[in-house]
Amino acid sequence: MLMESSPYGIEKKKLGMWVFIISDACTFAAFLFAYGYMRVGAPVWGTPFEFSSILNGMLMTAVLLSSSLTMLAAVRAAQAGTKASANKWLGVTMLLGAIFAALHLREWFKLIGEGWRLFYNPTGGAAQFGATFFSVTGLHLTHVVTGVIALGFIARGYNQGRYDESHVETAGLYWHFVDLVWMFVFPLMYLMNAQ
Amino acid sequence: MEPMSAHAATHHAPPQGFIRKYVFSVDHKIIGIQYTTLSLVAAFIGMALSWAMRIHLGWPDAHIPLLSMFSPNGAPGGLMTPEYYLSLMTMHGTIMAFFVLTAAPMAGFGNFMLPIQVGAADMAFPRLNMASFWVTFVGFVLACATFFIPDGPPLSGWTAYAPLSAVGTVAGPGQGWGQNFWGLSIAVFCVASLLGALNFIVTTLDLRTKGMTLSRLPLSTWAWFINAWVSLLAFAVLLPTCLLLVLDRLGGTSFFIPAGLVINDQLQPHSGGSPLLFQHLFWFFGHPEVYIIILPAFGIVSHILPTFIRKPLVGGWKAITYAMIAVGTLSFVVWGHHMFVSGMSPFMAMVFSVPTLFITIPSVIAVLIWTFSLYRANMRFDTPMLFSLGFISLFISGGIGGFFLAQPSTDSYLHATSFVVGHFHFTMGLSAIFAAFAGFYYWFPKMWGRMMNETLGKVHFWLSFVLVYCVFMTMHLTGFAGAVRRYSAFVDDFMVPLIPTQRFISVAALLLGAAQFIFLFNAIWSRFQGPKAPDNPWGATTLEWDTTSPPPFDNFGGRQITVYHGPMEYDGEASVMQTSPEVSVAGT
């Protein structure tokens, strides 16, 4: 309409995403605080992860870190206006996200198969292990899956010309944040629980 | 690329049809009115609950026939059980703290006024804004639904302390589905508050019009902006707290339930959790929450005062704004003072006591700014001004009680008594309500285009003001005398002498509630029959008074807004609009 653009205008989607990231970081922090509180308070905690689990976790880490790199490539390509390249990199990022989720679910099902539950520890350690592991990684996994779906919508809209490179960049912010959270979750939930 | 996304919000056209225009509207003004209306309904429900509680406290044998129709199990024959009293208390606290005090001053008035005050056509994310309201609505429906499920509402108070809130039906009626509904309701409310806070922050930073620097923001906008940050961080922690509580209840985890807990001779199948963890997480949200409630009140009063004293506040925009920022920041490091008697390490009690005393400094600075600003002022005593003065009075009275409670030694005695009830009703309950009334009377002409009746407004103020003191100052005294909070009746021998005082409080509370119907009548009658409001009935200077009453769909009718002054350009009768290029009168 007749409104002039704001002289203080910074890209509002980007600002909104940053604000969301701050808030979401607090949510993860509360989960991790609960984990630390449970762990410190438990008489016997128990560290059940065998080398194969750690190896799987390292593989997941490598996949997710790589996906941040491909996301960066997608943003760069979008900013350069090369649509085909941006779409390709978005696709690769989604694929890596999906591989991460698949590897993660494999780990979950393995643990569930061994008898781990939210309220039960088959190795005789603290029952809180299952509660904290499944809730913290579950929250993270939800973020990854949401991210993959969101990237799908962004890629589609970008392809059809409804979205521009700023949408790709904003989605990238979210993706890097989810990656960053994993950099806290992996050492705290996996490495600290290695046998 | 599109030229500038900053005005993408202005791109949507006025909606057609009733549903798009008034129900699922993306217009911030309609959403503000929706929030205000929701809060009004919630406030009257919460008030009715307090009536039932007060009648029972004053006359423990009294039968309330209406109550038995409402809940045959909770009040057989109209005489409420102790459990049902706790249910009423829980829902009074939940509805008032979340759906009235958190919603009205921030989401209600803020939604309507903030975009106009910064010169924008709408919020930064209008559809997200609509989602915030409707998610809040779902949360409210879930909370109210607890009254209609067989076991009734939960018993665990608005703080939902674990393990009581975590163990399920074995802990009493209402701890089954009632508590589940409660957890879901609050989780949903958290999501809505987070979306709202995000919108407020981005709108304030991003959609300001030409010349609207941060130093020229109205103080109400400043308060909503600071408050949005506090909400963003606090509700982001309450959300996982609710999720963990729900996991404990439905997923069998033991985050908050200790090992070996025996309830009603049944050993609970949980191990290793910590009730203190719940308290830490809850109060990390809960203490900022009381500032989430009071900061918009600071803002509304600081916004209204200069209009009615016809001069800037002492210290200009900076002193009060820095005080609000300090309050908001410190609110995150004082949560442990709610846990002095919880079994936390006494050393930690000292650690939390010190910042608690520190946070009184910016609060006192704010109070001094308001009171010193009144000195030699050419005051006008319209209803918004009366309620602003009432706010200052109540905030001081409540704050003085805070000094006693901030000390672990005196708090050990007072914590479980009605002293605390009186204290928090003064500081965060009634102070915020008075500021919300001030805002309502002040902005009513802008929101609905009609003036409210001044005489009824003044009657409403004086009755409310006197009766609020009768109710809550007396609670301080009964607290000193040892009246335990959360008891449904005072029939033990040492509390019997307090019964006449309890009856005095009850009568005052019933009258206080009755006085609110004067307000309700005034609001509804004025909405349809009040005289048409001019654009700027109070002689104010901020942008919301620089457009028609009510404002057009895009707020300024396509006018390009440029701001030249701060909001407090008053000098006696003379005042300069923020949009006027004239030289400033007060030199701010």
Note the topology.
The complex is a heterodimer of chains A (195) and B (588).
Chain A: H1 12-41, H2 51-79, H3 83-113, H4 128-159, H5 165-190
Chain B: H1 18-23, H2 28-58, H3 65-70, H4 82-117, H5 126-145, H6 177-206, H7 219-251, E1 262-263, E2 266-267, H8 275-309, H9 316-330, H10 346-373, H11 383-405, H12 408-414, H13 418-448, H14 454-481, H15 499-529, E3 570-571, E4 574-575
Helix pairs in contact in B: 2-4, 2-5, 2-15, 4-5, 4-6, 4-7, 4-8, 4-13, 5-6, 6-7, 7-8, 7-9, 8-9, 8-11, 8-13, 9-10, 10-11, 11-13, 11-14, 13-14, 14-15
Question: TL;DR of this structure?
Answer:
Chain A has helices spanning 12-41, 51-79, 83-113, 128-159, 165-190. Chain A is mostly helical. Chain B has one domain (25-258, 270-575): Cytochrome c oxidase-like, subunit I domain (Cytochrome C Oxidase, Chain A), CATH 1.20.210.
Descriptive tags:
heterodimer; A: 195 residues; mainly alpha; Four Helix Bundle (Hemerythrin (Met), subunit A); 5 helices; elongated; B: mainly alpha; Cytochrome C Oxidase, Chain A; two-stranded antiparallel sheet; 4 strands; 61% helix; 1% strand; globular; disordered N terminus
Give a written overview of the molecule:
The complex is a heterodimer of chains A (about 200) and B (about 600). Helix content of chain A is about 75%, strand content about 0%. Chain A is built from five helices and no strands. By secondary structure, chain B is an all-alpha fold. Chain B has one domain: Cytochrome C Oxidase, Chain A. Chain B contains 15 helices and four strands. The chains are: A mainly alpha (about 200), B mainly alpha (about 600). The interface between A and B is large, with 45 and 56 residues.
CATH architecture of chain A: Up-down Bundle
Could you list the spans of chain B in which at least 5 consecutive residues all have pLDDT below 50?
1-10
Reading off the top of the CATH hierarchy, the class of chain B is best stated as Mainly Alpha
- How would a textbook summarize the main sheet of chain A? none
* Biggest chain pair interface: A-B, 45 and 56 residues
Q: What is the overall pLDDT average of chain B? A: 92
State the order of secondary-structure elements of chain B, H for helix, E for strand.
HHHHHHHEEHHHHHHHHEE
> What is the tally of helical segments of chain B?
15
Radius of gyration of chain A: 19 Å
CATH architectural category of chain B: Up-down Bundle
Report, as a whole number of angstroms, the end-to-end distance of chain B: 40 Å
What is the number of helical segments of chain A per DSSP (H or I, 4+ residues)? 5
Return Rg of chain B in Å: 24 Å
